[in-house]
Each structure stands twice: as C-alpha cells, then as structure tokens.
C-alpha cells in the first residue's frame, strides 16, 4: 500500500523551491568504504566546560562515547583536573554495543570538587570521595545528605520536600506544587470568574540513584482538591556530593481539553523560616544581566536620621548589624516606626519586560519598585543566619513567569516560583478557529490546499501534551554577597555542563559516523562552513528579533516566511510553528557535535525540551504520537511518529544522561500500538481499511524510522523493554530486507506480536518525505551495529535510486519514482551509498546533487537585508529566501556529505 504525506497534495506550494542550478563540481576521488570494525579506545579523553569555567560548582553530569568492542561494560573511570589533582567521579553505563561492550558512559562531578578549566577522563580506578551522598529510606520519608545539607523528602501528602537543613539549621520546609484552576477564560472585559487552588499530592516515590556523587529521587503525583485531581506531574530531585542546593526537574502533563477549565497559575511554593531581626532579613532579586535588587525587610538606609555609615554598609552587604544600642539613638528609638516590607513580586509577563512591586502585608497597597527587560529568574529570602535562594531556568524566555515572596516579616516567609504567572490570566489552549465548515475529509483536504493546515474536528486538542522546567533551591548559610548572588543567578541561567570534544565524539563512531569535526582546510570546505554558520546565526538571531518566546513556544522555530508582510507565517496554518518538520532538531545537534559551539548546544537543548514535550502526546488516545506543524503546536490533525521519534532526543540524552528525555524515549517503545488507534492515511484511502493488529499498514519511511529509533534506543540502553525492542527491531529489519523492492515498496503490513512485516509484492511507492525525519541517521546507526546484508542492501538501493534517473529507477525496481523534490536533502543518501560502496561516480553525483539541484546553492543570496519601520513592526535583519525545511536539509546534507566524502 502506498505511503503518502499530506504534503503530496500540495506540491505546487511546497516550501522548498527549485533554485537555479550551478555548474558541476570538480572530480571527486572515490571515498573509502565504511566498514564495521572495533577500534582501540583512547586511554584518556580531554573534557572541557561547554561555556567558560563556571563561577560556582553545582556539579555536572555528562556522557562520553566509546568505540565498539573497546571498553568493557564494567570498566572503571578516573577524573583528573587540569592541575593534576585526582577528582572523585561517579560513572555508570547508559548505552551498550550489541557485543555488550560500553557504547556510552555517564559521569557525575561532585559539587565540592575544585573547579578546573578542564579535566581528563581515564579508564582506571578513580579517586575515593571524602564525603559521599547518603540516602536513608524510612516508611514515610527519604533523607538525602550531601555533606552540606540534609533534605527530607516526603513519600505521601503534599510536601515533596519536608525540610532542608544546613548545619542543623532548618533553611526551608514544606515545598509543594500548587496550581490555580478556573472554569472560564476571561473573554469579556468584566471578569466573573473565581479560582481554586489545588496542591500537588504524592503517589509514588522512587530512588533512582544513590551516589556516591549523585542521588536522584523521582516523585510522581497530581494536583488535588475536594475530590478533583488534574495536572499529573513527574518531579526529579538531584543532589550532588558537597552541594548546598537541590536541582528540580519538573514535568506536568496537561490532562485537560483546554475548553472548560483553565490553568490560571502553576508553581512551586516553599516555606523559609525567618529567625533574624527584621533589619537583618534580606531580599535579593536578579534582574537584567548581573543586575540585582538588594533590600532589607526593614531598611535603615535613606532615613531622615542616619544610624551610621558602618550600619548602613553592613545592611547593604547582607551582614549582621551591630547591636542597635550602638547606633544613633534617634534611629534606634524609632525602629518600630519604620515599615517592614514582607511581600515582593516580580512578574515577567512578556519576553521584553518585567516589573517588581512590594507591599508591607496583605490588605495594603502595592508600591512599584522598578522594572526592567529580562529578569534572571533568581531570588533570595532569608537573613544573616541563612536563607533560601531559588530560581527557574529560562525564566524570561518562558514568560509569563513570576517570583513571589510573602510574609518575610513573619516567622515563616513563603516563596513561590510561578512557571505560569497568576497575573497573566488563564492559560488559553483553545483551538484558534471554529472549523470553517471543514466537516468532511474532502473539505479538510481543500483546506490543506489553501492554508497547508490539516484540520479535523476534535483533533486540535492539547490533552496529553507536557512541559518540563528546571528549577534550583540553594540552602545558604548566610545572605550571599552581591558577587555570590550574581554567580548563582548565572548558574541558574546556564547550568554548568561538561562535554567531550568533537574529535572524540567522531572517532568513537557516535551516531552512525555521519559527522566530522569542522574543517576549513580548502576553499570549498570553508565556503560550506561559512554558510552553515550563516544559517545557524540567522535562526539564533530570528528567535530574538521575532520574539519566539513563551511558555508553550520557546525552543521551536517557524516554518516559512511571508515575503510580503516581512514576517514568518505565524498565522497561516501549516506554515507557522515548525514542530520538527524535516528535522531541524537533527541539523542543530549534528552542528553541535562537529563544532562544540555552546550557542548551538543551548539552542538545540531548548528545542529538544520543547519538541519532545509540547509537540508530542504523553496521555490519551494519541500517546506516543506527535503533531504536524501548525499555528498552535497541537492544532494539526496529522498525529504522527515522524514528530515523536526518539531520533530527535537521542543525542541530547547521550550527551547529558538526562533522565526526563530518557523517559520520553522509553514511552515510545510500544508506540506501534498507536496504529490501532489512528490511521494516518484515513483521509486519502480509496479502499476500506480496518486496523488489524496482525496486519497494520505502516509506512517504511517516517513511520518505521520512528519506531526503529525507539526500539534501538531502548535496546542500547538495555531498558525494561529491551528484549521486545530488540526482537521488533531485528524482525522489521529482516523482513524489510526480504521485500523484493525493500524500502522502495513504501509500506508493509505489520504484525504487532511478531514484529514482522509481511513480504510485499514488488511494488514502487516513494515519497520525498520518507527518509527526511531521521531515517538516514537511524539506518546509518543500524548498519554500523548489526550485520544484516539484506537490510543494508535494501537501504543502499533506496539511497542510490532516489536521486537517480527515471530510467535507472525503472530498470531496477520495475517503475520510476515519479516527480520527486528535496534532492539536495537526499544528496546525503547518495553520499552514504558512495561511502559504503567506495563508488567514485556516486560520490561525484552526490556533490552535484548538493550544489546544483534544489535547495540553497551558489545562486542563493547568502545575506540578510536590514528592515526598519514602517515596513516592519520591529527592526529586523531578514533573509526572505530562507525557510526551515530547506535550512534543515541543507545543514544535514552539508554536514554528512563533508564527513562521508573525504
């Protein structure tokens, strides 16, 4: 049965235009054939920080790849600083080769290790840790000690963290999750709505890691009140040896249709005991850059009477004030008449501005403090005897966010990080139009032909999407200095990340060997490198100038520009948010792997956090599927494997060992069952079709590659379902290899139980999209891992023939492939076949396809045009010839061709 994409109906308006051809490339020498082999592992690996050496050590976790067959799975590891000091390190496997040898190891650096500009990882016994993380489990609590703080975690009730103590002093208590629910969306000027507060309730707690360097505790639950429960959550708490903080990774699942009830606030609230005199209590709130609001609950600066310069200086510095008896008594005797400011609020309601207000207490008026552009998302509340620093990563980028401090003048302050600000109004996830009369499939296909949106009633729902946020809580023994506070705020913004260099990543054979370190050794290579840099820099700058920020949007980019309005088509159906269309995620990650650029890593990281959560369903009938590109991330009715595919998450996971992204990939192991729930070809079938668990119609391109990525990852990680994943992966590979036309067949009938495809007749059904959602990358990894000649032959046939002449296609398969586009993106398939076969003619053809077919060429402008008002709303540098489809495919083709065709 033929595999179709919705886009087959709109080829006339495809977003990848045919551009002017360029002259043929010079002769290309035959590439050395790729071979599967085992290589000796290096004795050491040089490691560096992603960015500069951090100002504060909060610990770090990272992954390192190893060549096949070179490192035993139980190999020990040691870490040495640039200064030659032995540094304790915790190591564990996160990926295996088929022979059981280590493919990826994960490592953790303690927070009390001396900071060094670089480290060396070696395969030998490591240094013992002086003070290890401890985990003590009781019936109702789990206590984790870092050597600096002790954290008591609840097993039931609402307090995720019952207490954090430092040096025997309780710094924080009763940390809980809160949400505000309302039943109307406030559409009218006059609000007639009431809100109710629900509190997170614990259902399950699991200790996932016990040290000695790092402990991880997973907490699951939902928000409840008076019998109503909603917003399931998964929270992980990370504690490092020697750390004074708890890192929290918070995920909530949106289990509402977004039509009749609305999230009016979502936050984390914690109590902070206040022991000091009110004039020794301090508030610190980070603003733009290293900007900092420094205030005391009872301020003694600026008064009509002066307590003395030493007293004022000490309060500003956050130090304990001398006995008031030593002050100017004109101040001391009037201390009760100085207001105490117990409440502070910073609200970041857009990416362009925040405001800070304060008041003495509830029931009294708010006083404006100041405003700024982009707050750092960090605050401190406490006193000279200690307090709590708390912050949220990507604070302004994910507006509307808010920081609240309440009751700092009382025995217990309450601090809340609002991931969704209550001042912003309710979270509006309703579908953006009324259907426009598109009640039947023919009407919906007509809509697709004009707005590129595949609408269907009931499908534009957010039910089941998710969002993950990173937060940190610092138990501090005293009010931090301004320099220390600024350093903590910077740590929240960009958590320190240790990385392995591109040369090692490439030499180890990571991710199919499809990249090589940046090389500008020839003019032609330098030209391509310059263009790759141009494209990334352009998208990085577009995020800023187009303000692609917000709670549900940050991390994604737009699909196609509107050359008339000088905007991206944010309001035109399928041309709006990209939702991983044609693999920008992979372009970014491969760009990082070969360059080591921190800005690319952070861009790709934000995209991974977004596309894996917001664009994919984690609950409900479409769990395991993602949503095609659209005006809203959940708007389109095409719910597909090509968006949820694990291939977009794998690289981030193996580089960081991030458990949440590991969850996302594990969720997909059984996603083959989604083909029972939803027929992706329902609108275009010409014959009746009822899903049969023993004969499910599954495309061999975007569908199978998504399934294969999940199975491969689970098998490599040796996850709980590794056996079934291995079985289905090998069975599908084996039966694809048996098909007379292999991948050219287009689709097959799949058995859920056996994992096999029925061997199809010799048919031809080729789509320009089939291989462009991670299939190239997954097949390269599989062929490097598994010796299955028939499968490799089937894939190489597809690679050779996609861009071949119609006569060549017909001669080998019985029919030509029709009119195909995206030839530049497919040039990397030709290059892969050339490299595997050592075929110089194919290599030369690959470069011709890359430089002179469609996509970007020498004839492209390769520049931006500055625009200002009144032509545009905001000044912007525009490249109207750039779109995300072409960019992603050009980027991947350039990177992989440069690596494959030496």
From TrEMBL:
UniProt xrefs under Pfam families: PcRGLX_1st, PcRGLX_2nd, PcRGLX_3rd
InterPro entries: PcRGLX/YetA-like, PcRGLX/YetA_2nd, PcRGLX/YetA_3rd, PcRGLX_1st, TAT_signal
Top-level lineage group: Bacteria
Key words of the record: Signal
PcRGLX/YetA-like N-terminal RIFT barrel domain segment(s): 44-123
Keyword Signal: yes
Residue ranges occupied by any PcRGLX/YetA-like central beta-sandwich domain in the UniProt entry: 133-489
Residue stretches making up the PcRGLX/YetA-like C-terminal alpha/alpha toroid domain: 495-901
Leader sequence segment: 1-29
Name the record gives this protein: Tat (Twin-arginine translocation) pathway signal sequence
